Amino acid sequence: MSERRRSLMRLEIARAAVKLFRAKGVAATTGDDIAGAIGISARTLWRYFPTKESCVRPLLTGSLETLAAALRDCPPGAGLLAHLERVGIFADRETLGTEPIADLVRMTRTEPALRTVWLDVHHAAEEVFAEIIAERVGAAPGDLAVRMQAAVLNAALRVAAEEHARALAQSSDPPPLGAVLRTALTAAAPALPAFAPAPEPDTRPRTDAGTGT
After folding, report:
1. Is 207 helix (H, G, I), strand (E, B) or coil?
2. Contact in structure between 166 and 158 (CB atoms under 8 Å)
3. 36, 38, 32: which is closest to 15 by C-alpha?
4. Fewest CB atoms within 10 A around its CB: which of 12, 35, 152, 207?
């Protein structure tokens, strides 16, 4: 099976799992239930995922992988917010509202097993962000300053996703995900010097020293 077909199968399993978790709860849902929902055997399901809770992981990693790719492509001095705006990260993504991602993120607040997967996904993402930041600043990924910036970036993304999921459930006119993400990263930007924009050139007229002209 090609890698693309494997990825599509993983997503199909993830969507089926979220639908069942939402309807029955995590504890009452079995691997057989998830497999049967998409017409595969439980044995096949376990080839893709080690536990029923981990079945949801592909829905949680996609946006983080997209963001990581955008960070790797951010030119030196471009500025984080300007770069993400330019590559479309803040563009409204209707598919994120129609897929079960928001339901899944909300369930991480009430289902401890799903919360564990959610936090594990972000822990892994934080390590990736640390590697990207370390390369930009010429330091080691384990450097404390690098790790702190990675943690700030990771926290902003996690809180933005949680806030957007909450707003979708509670408001008839929720802000789009892109707007929530922009607000979160704007707040985080001062603590991310690795992605600071280059200073504006000083265009003020110079005066000759000692003459005042």
Report:
1. coil
2. no
3. 38
4. 207
**Percentage with pLDDT > 70 across the chain:** 90
Kindly state the DSSP code that residue 77 receives in the 8-state scheme.
T
Cα separation, 48 vs 204, in Å, equals: 62
Region 147-154: mean pLDDT is 98
> What fold characterizes domain 3-54?
Arc Repressor Mutant, subunit A (1.10.10)
Q: Which amino acid is at 152?
A: V
- Measure the CA angle with vertex 109, ends 181 and 172; round to 5°: 55
The residue extents of the domains of the chain are 3-54, 56-195
Mean pLDDT of all residues belonging to the chain: 90
150-162: burial string, b at 16+ Cβ within 10 Å, e else: bebbbebbbbbbb
Longest dimension (CA), the chain: 87
The answer to whether residues 17 and 55 touch, using CB atoms and an 8 Å cutoff, is yes
Residue range 56-195 in CATH 1.10.357.10: yes
- Residue 45: pLDDT band with limits 50, 70, 90: very high
- Residue 194 C-alpha from the chain's centroid: 19
Neighbours of 165 (CB within 10 A): 24
185: Cβ contacts below 8 Å, ≥ 6 apart: 80, 81, 84, 153, 156, 157, 160
